[in-house]
Amino acid sequence: MDKKIVKKWSYSRYSQYKDCPAMYQWNYLMGKKRPPPSPAMARGLDIHKKAENFVNGKITGFPDVLKQFKPEFLQLRKEFKKKKGFCEPDISMNLDGTPATMETTDYFVGFADYAHYGDELTVIDYKTGRQYPGHQDQGHAYSTALLKMNPQYENINVEFWYLDSGAVKEFYHTQKDLTRMEGIWQRRIDKMYADKKFEKTPYQWCKSCNRHKRNGGDCSG
What we know:
Blueprint: E1 9-10, H1 11-19, H2 21-29, H3 39-55, H4 70-81, E2 85-87, E3 108-109, E4 114-117, E5 121-127, H5 134-149, E6 155-162, E7 167-174, H6 178-194
């Protein structure tokens, strides 16, 4: 990575830019106030909180919304109690590869739902709703940061648990992939920061975008 280029980013920022540069500009560069979460987003946040609080022992009864993964969540709870796993770890990273926090990082901002540091590094992200191709990019971003910060691990496995359907999607990367992975993200982020036009790019969720006129913005989609 070019140390002269210091550009703070996160997967969510990149994802918005990839879908529509104008949406990214509105949300991250223009400082526009975001509307309350949609019903689907509110539901997802509620389920994530239930999952976190079950694993860390703050609630005792098993949440019905997690039933597709009951054995798995019971195992995470045991790991957490033994301090072999971590809920909501901050996986932010500085440009030089040192661990950081969301507040202090000068480069990558990231959070995962669960991380297990054993013989192999495993990160789990809970998803509600459908599977989307972008989740592969999210797993790739997490893997890039975690491999960089944890050179003692040769491998990393990122799992997406689709809580509604019971499906699991896994992405596996190794240290030998790291240089190539870093290059991919550096090129993507360079492009994002070099953009001066932020063109409006219609996509399937335009009408739910904060910038759409129906939501008080200046874009007709």
